[in-house]
């Protein structure tokens, strides 16, 4: 029986709610780790680095300008929000959006503890974002959009929130072969079951209105791991722009 959206969302919230409370890194299990090297970055709050799920480095693929507004989708403990906050400077702003209340609470407490003045964290779903139209310069995301069941709505929402000329840089899991099998909710939450092919991903971006679309395979441990285990997914970072 196919999973419905609510089953998928509940499974994702449960998994990442536990992640926020138990300080356990990585979004996958023995078949998909999605691990990050954030813990090695000494200039990041340890409370954020402890709960990172990652399959790429979206901020290294794009130039972040001082004074910009950056939106991080599926911000989790806030590690990429805190990274971006240094790049936009005191005149800029970074918004973290996450659907898991435990993650939002944790990220807000971390921001308060370390006195980050130019960040905020909002609770919400990517398909229905509490973000104004045409208000964001850059959208980033790291190993999150594969978890969203209604991807066309998610990309339309991303497009809506971006200013004309705004950009995206999102690292995500994509399927390396077509075909679907029935999956359990927890498998979807483990970063693999919701992945679409590169062709499908590009079509989603085109249908949403994006242009200048580029997909780059990530040099990330997750790719080597998937190859070694013959799991048909890989990590790709996508860049695109909203027309002016």
Strand content: 15-25%
Which descriptor suits the 3D outline?
globular
User: Main β-sheet: number of strands, strand sense, barrel status?
Assistant: 7 strands, mixed
Instruction: Please bin the fraction of helical residues.
Output: 25-40%
Oligomer: single chain
- Which CATH architecture? 3-Layer(aba) Sandwich
Strand order of the largest sheet: 3-2-1-4-5-7-6
What's the β-strand tally? Answer: 7
| Average pLDDT for all residues | 85
Structural class: alpha/beta
What separation lies between the terminal Cα atoms?
Answer: 44 Å
CATH homologous superfamily caption: Vaccinia Virus protein VP39
Class in CATH?
Answer: Alpha Beta
Low-confidence stretches: 26-33
Question: How many structural units, i.e. domains?
Answer: 1
Give the ordered list of helices and strands: HHEHEHEEHEHHEHE
Radius of gyration: 16 Å
């Amino acid at each position: 029986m196919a999973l419905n959206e609510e089953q998928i969302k509940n499974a994702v919230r449960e998994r990442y709610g536990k992640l926020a409370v138990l300080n356990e890194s990585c979004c996958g299990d023995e078949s998909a780790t999605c691990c990050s090297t954030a813990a090695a970055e000494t200039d990041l709050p340890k409370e954020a680095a402890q709960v990172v799920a990652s399959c790429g480095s979206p901020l290294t693929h794009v130039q972040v300008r001082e004074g910009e507004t950056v939106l991080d989708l599926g911000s989790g403990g806030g590690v990429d929000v805190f990274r971006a906050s240094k790049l936009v400077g005191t005149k800029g702003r970074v918004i973290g959006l996450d659907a898991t209340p435990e993650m939002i609470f944790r990220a807000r407490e971390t921001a308060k503890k370390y006195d980050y003045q130019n960040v905020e964290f909002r609770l919400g779903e990517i398909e229905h974002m509490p973000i104004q139209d045409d208000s964001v310069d850059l959208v980033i995301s790291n190993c999150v959009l594969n978890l969203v069941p209604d991807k066309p709505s998610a990309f339309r929402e991303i497009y809506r929130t971006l200013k004309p000329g705004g950009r995206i840089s999102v690292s995500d899991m994509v399927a390396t072969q077509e075909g679907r099998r029935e999956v359990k909710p927890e498998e979807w939450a483990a970063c693999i079951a919701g992945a679409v092919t590169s062709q499908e991903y590009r079509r989603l971006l085109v249908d949403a209105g994006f242009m200048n679309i580029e997909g780059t395979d990530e040099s990330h441990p997750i790719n080597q791991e998937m190859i070694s285990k013959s799991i048909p997914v890989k990590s790709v970072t996508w860049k695109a722009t909203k027309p002016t």
